[in-house]
Sequence to fold (276 residues):
Amino acid sequence: MSKRIKDELKKEAEKLKNSGIVPGLAVIIVGDDPASRVYVNNKKKACAEVGIYSEEYALAEDTSEDELLALIDRLNCRKEISGILVQLPLPKQINEENVIGRIDPKKDVDAFHPVNVGKIMVGNYDFVPCTPAGIMELIKESGIDISGKECVIVGRSNIVGKPMSMLLLHSNGTVTICHSKTRNLAEKTKRADIIVAAVGKPNFITGDMIKEEAVVIDVGINRMADKKLVGDVEFETAEKVASAITPVPGGVGPMTIAMLMKNTLKAAVINNKEDK
Ligand code: NDP
Fold:
């Protein structure tokens, strides 16, 4: 599915270029976290596949907040840059909120800026955070109707859980959000027609916590001691009860990147209109 989306986006990027609009993405990484490095490389690779111009800024671990904000200010002003992405997490000396708030909302392809978060809340948005957007595509493209379904999200982060809840709600799901203080978690997950697991704990959701025929979306990416990647869902037990399930690796990860490409093309169009 992610490949098909990227192929479509490639054609769209070509059309935009023919009309004089060149989409461009700036990716900023601070420090040398190996997982972040992998994600940034994948994003750059996807840009090349789709035909999006990309620039990478690899900053040292001890970069100050002021230096990072100054770079964002410069990128905000540049016409060739349609989208700006700051890879999270950031080192301790940098306040994430200040950084996210500094990105021009029209270039905020991650949709983390409070303006874009607010727009998602009211249901009138340009950008949707890439992971929840990718999950919605997975569900809808698989022919699964969300309307009236019990949707249980485990995890309430600003990146995944919270925006996910809004998107499912806008699609008329009945949404429950669980977190570390939730009591009787299995009781909630067992009710779900659709489960989204975004916890960051390997094999946390097991088959016995899932209702027969449920749709299971596994967002988690956990690297084990033997370097293997596993999700938040115990795949072997869950697949026996689920009607549909996403794997890790694969599944949500590639869809997230495809949605980043989609948001960058959208940003190119929006910023081009603004310039006129
Ligand atoms: P966070 O650490 O920000 O959030 C984790 C959430 O899980 C929190 O809301 C936390 O609750 C909740 N939680 C922790 N322990 C429990 C528990 N025992 N019972 C119920 N809930 C619990 O993580 P993210 O949302 O950023 O990411 C989640 C996972 O998804 C990670 O593995 C991450 O690597 C992966 N990820 C994958 C992406 C992809 O493209 N596939 C993109 C983004 C993330 P509380 O709020 O109470 O602390």
Observations:
- The chain has a mean pLDDT of 97.
